[in-house]
Amino acid sequence: MGKNRKKGKKKKTCPIDPVEEQFKGAPHSFVFHRGHVGKNVKQLVADTRLLMEPFTAKNLQVRKKNVLKDFVNVAGMLHVTHFMIFTKTDVGVYMRLCRLPRGPTLTFKVHNYCLAKDVISSLRKPNLEQMQFMHHPLVVMNNFSGEENHIKLMSSMFQNLFPSINIHKVKLNDVKRCVMVNYHSDSHLLDFRHFNIKVVPVGMSRGVKKLVQSRVPNLGKYGDISEYMTRAGYSSESEVELDGPMNEVVLPQHIRSRGNIKSAKSAVRLTELGPRLTLELVKIEEGICEGPVLYHAFITRTQAELAQQAALRDKKQKLKEARRQQQAANVARKEEEKGQHKERSLEGIRRILQEEKGDEAVEEPNMPDSDEGDDDVEYFKQEVGQMPDKDSFIPGGVKRKKQQKSHSPAKMKKIDSSNKLSKLVTDRKDVKFNKVKNMDSKTDSVVKGKGQNDKNNQSKRANMTPMQKMMERKKKKKKMKEKKKTLKMRKGGKKK
């Protein structure tokens, strides 16, 4: 067989994970509330999120500033297909069920609701296993056989809210929960309930079932084993065990529980988990929470009213489109103005740089002309009678600019710690020095009356460095000693 002569890298094809593809293809949902609803409705939202597990955002953070458009923009990236929105008004609590991305939106009025904690508290033996929420629930629809379009739409919305199952490939060990939706045609109400599914073997009493389990039951309160085997069952309405042909099934697969064998009869037990909802369909809208009303349970409109609503809706849409176009034009105009301003700024910077370069080329040192130099030499010769020296008139001489005196105080110089004089300044504690210092202060107080000289001395002293101040003190000290000596000599001469 010949060798493959094609050059270049072969593109590697990574195998697609079927679990990830199944997860992306499953319907996902957001459950949240809008506006002020109260703590009970917030808890109802949390219970509904637990019901919709695992294909929902359990820890979805909703803030006051978030609008519906924010959730719609995020939904596409997260493969979200449904919204369940709870609101509360003065009339009651409402639930909106939206299909993304183009609707429709079903608005239900919540007549009654019961939280999961209330349902669990009413049960004698609630099932609180957390592993049951790892798999999505089954959907059981009852009495949705009407021919009306709104009933068919309701049925399809609830069915598509959860992933579909393949009866030939489903694993019974993964079926742990079910959601039952029952429609009452006479009252037009829906019962929305959530149950746990459990399979137990048929033909055994509760006592025998407990003996079959791995844990041995407590028999201390019974006088005989027959009392335990034949005792009456105490259970609530939500966990009643009525075995019969209506709930007995033949298992096509082996289930991970004691006594449930393949091809054997077992009974299905349902334990309610909550929440409970009693709903009534109010209206169906086209789009997501906005659009023409396709069905309303209480209001019927004529064709003229419908046409008027359509015209008003078209007007709003056109106004919205015009505003969008105006905004886009304003953004483009501002970008153009910004670019023009930038060009003008750059042009001005270039012009300033060119002017500075021209000034540097023109500006040169103040060189005296040769004619002026010759005139000065001739004038000197006529007045003096002889030629000047060579260094008197330098032809290329440059005058030094006079430095302007700054009135700011001079910077304090750092004193080297190794210098002896600095040690004298910082550490000297001589008594005589202190006396001289006191004398200086006295002389300063005397000198203060001298007027302008005092101000000049103070300004000079402020500009002096610590080293200069110390040297000035030494000079004053010497002068004082000389004055004392002269005074002593004068006194001695007078006495003689």
From TrEMBL:
Q: Where is the composition biased (Basic residues)?
A: 398-412, 472-496
Q: What's this protein's name? A: Brix domain-containing protein
> For this protein, what is any one GO molecular function term?
rRNA binding
Q: Where is the composition biased (Polar residues)?
A: 454-466
According to the UniProt record, where is the region Disordered?
A: 324-496
Q: Which residues form the Brix domain?
A: 27-290
Q: What GO cellular component entries does it have? A: preribosome, large subunit precursor
| Biological process, per Gene Ontology | ribosomal large subunit assembly; rRNA processing
Q: Where is composition skewed (Basic and acidic residues) in this entry? A: 332-360, 425-453
| Pfam families recorded | Brix
Q: Which InterPro entries match?
A: Brix, PPAN-like
| PROSITE patterns with a match to the protein in the record | BRIX
